[in-house]
Amino acid sequence: MKKITLLFFFAVATAYAAKNVAVLEIISSREDVPIEVSEFRHLTDELRTRARETLPRHEFSVLTRDNIISLMPPDEEEAECLSESCAVDIGRAIGAEYITQGFIGKFGGMLTLTVELYESLSGNLIGSFVTESKDIMGLLATIREKAPALFANLNAENDFNLAVKEQALNNNSQLSTLNSQLTKKSNTPLIVAISLDVFGAAALGFGIYQHFHANKLYDDYKKQSTHDKKDLQKANDAQQMRNVWLTIGGGLLATGIAVHIFF
Known about the structure:
The protein is of the alpha/beta class and 263 residues long. The chain has 8 helices and 6 strands. Helix 6 packs across helix 8. The chain is elongated.
């Protein structure tokens, strides 16, 4: 019974764990941009601050510059190679669910700034903004103005996921009530509870297996010399199956525990 309870709490913690958001350093998209390294860093700090202020801290964890550095591969050559990769690859490598990066360039004598926000595993673009200014102060002002709306996209996506989870919990609650009524009539609550425990634990076990399977598929995909989108899709499908089985298993175990307690 203790093992089953621990598995249940593991599933709940996995479903509701804070998601990591990485804000990479803003960089130059060309060599003739007249901006100092300290100015690039200040713009990045401002973007990171807006992310931290916009996103609920119990739902999202915004990685600091030191966090990101510590999560990079310890091997210098591997870390340097990764730093030259696209933002999505870096996000996957450091375990960040979401990642954003800005690029500064020049157009028609004006400074330009492009900031993009991605979901790391799928590589989907969640949102972006583009601006231009005569000087660095204009770019700073734009970050302060537009970054909150950019990161609010994550809030909207997270609210949708929470709504789905709440609906699942409501369905589980209704299932629990129905099972309670059935066990009263049949006078076999213990059999029902044990059955729910067994099926819930099996579902959780399969969900945990899918978690490691998805990680292995993605690792295999990264090792390929020519990246096949079908292999990435397999990793994405495995992750989705993980979420489904963990939710089902958690619901079944919650119902089984309720039957144990009340009957």
